[in-house]
Structure formats: C-alpha cells, structure tokens
C-alpha cells in the first residue's frame, strides 16, 4: 500500500475519532468514555484505536497538544507588540477547532485545556513583554500578564459561546480596539 493511501486512511481515522470524541464530550466526562463506545461511534475497530492511543484521554491530550502547537508556533513567530498576525492566527485556530474548543468549555468534559492554555501563555509572556514594559516590576508584570492574557482568553470563550458571528479578522480588530484602551502606546 502506498504512503498516500496510508496517509489518507490515517487522516480519515483521526477525523472519525475526533468527531466521535467531540460528540461524546458533549454529554460525558472524558473519564467516562470507553474505548469501545468511542470506537463504535467512530465506526472503527478497537484494534485500530489501540494502534494510535491507549485511552480516550490520550486522544484528547493529542488534540489539545495540536492546538497548543499551532498557538505557540504562532506565539514564537510574531512580535508580541505587533500583534495583528499573532491574534489572527489564534482566532483562525479557534475557528478551525471550534467544535472541540466549545465542548472543552464544558466543565463536565474533564478537560483542563483552558487553564493549561492560560498558564502556558503566562509562562512565556514575560520573555516577550519584559523589554517593552521595563518600567514595571516583575510582580507588576506578572499581574499585567494575567490581566491581559486572561482577558483575551475570556474574549475567545465569549466568542465561542455566542456562536462566533464575527470573523477571525473582525475579532482581531475588536481585540485591538480593547488593547489600545488599556496598553500604553509606544
């Protein structure tokens, strides 16, 4: 079998598993989802599931990590003070993964994705922001980072919960307007 056929089969299996997991997470905690019911809903053999994962939780972690990789690759590739491209890549990532991210907002899902996202960005922000806000003490910079980062995350959550009526580009413009009200101009 050629690599292209294997690749297509792999992607199809991943898509089926992702859709099935999202459907199950709408009503169940990740710890309540069995491999059997996930495999049945995805219409794949359990052996196929076990070729890729040990548990449904492993699948969820991989999906979360894929989103983290997109976000942090974008985060590292853009100047935090020139945020348009960075914010646009974030909003596009959310748009592309909205079904999964929406179910992860449900506290019953058992996911800690949003907390992990916030904490991960906070760990990275000092490195990128410190030179631009050298008038703040380290403690003030930590508070400032928490304020800004959790504010952005709350805006993303609100956008998801309200049906994502705005495009990613419109969300960037809205975010920039908010940002200009609270950040000093340089």
UniProtKB/TrEMBL annotation:
InterPro entries: Homeodomain-like_sf (IPR009057), HTH-type_Tx_Regulator (IPR050624), HTH_TetR (IPR001647), TetR_C_Firmicutes (IPR039532). PROSITE patterns: HTH_TETR_2 (PS50977). Keywords: DNA-binding. Residues 11-71 form the HTH tetR-type domain. The keyword DNA-binding applies. This is HTH tetR-type domain-containing protein. PANTHER family: ACREF/ENVCD OPERON REPRESSOR-RELATED, TETR-FAMILY TRANSCRIPTIONAL REGULATOR. It comes from Clostridium puniceum. GO terms for molecular function: DNA binding. Residues 34-53 bind DNA. Pfam families: TetR_C_8 (PF14278). SUPFAM superfamilies: Homeodomain-like (SSF46689).
């Amino acid at each position: 079998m050629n690599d292209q056929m294997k690749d297509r089969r792999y992607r199809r299996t991943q898509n089926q598993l992702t859709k099935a997991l999202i459907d199950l997470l709408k009503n169940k905690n990740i710890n309540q989802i069995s491999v059997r019911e996930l495999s049945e809903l995805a219409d794949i053999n359990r052996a196929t599931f076990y070729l890729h994962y040990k548990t449904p939780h492993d699948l969820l972690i991989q999906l979360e990590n894929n989103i983290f990789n997109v976000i942090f690759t974008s985060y590292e590739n853009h100047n935090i003070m020139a945020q348009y491209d960075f914010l646009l890549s974030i909003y596009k990532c959310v748009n592309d993964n909205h079904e999964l991210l929406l179910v992860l907002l449900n506290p019953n899902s058992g996911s800690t994705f949003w907390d992990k996202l916030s904490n991960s960005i906070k760990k990275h922000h000092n490195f990128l922001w410190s030179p631009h806000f050298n008038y703040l003490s380290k403690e003030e910079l930590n508070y400032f980072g928490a304020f800004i980062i959790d504010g952005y995350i709350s805006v993303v959550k609100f956008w998801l919960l309200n049906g994502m009526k705005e495009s990613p580009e419109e969300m960037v413009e809205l975010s920039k307007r908010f940002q200009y009200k609270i950040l000093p101009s340089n």
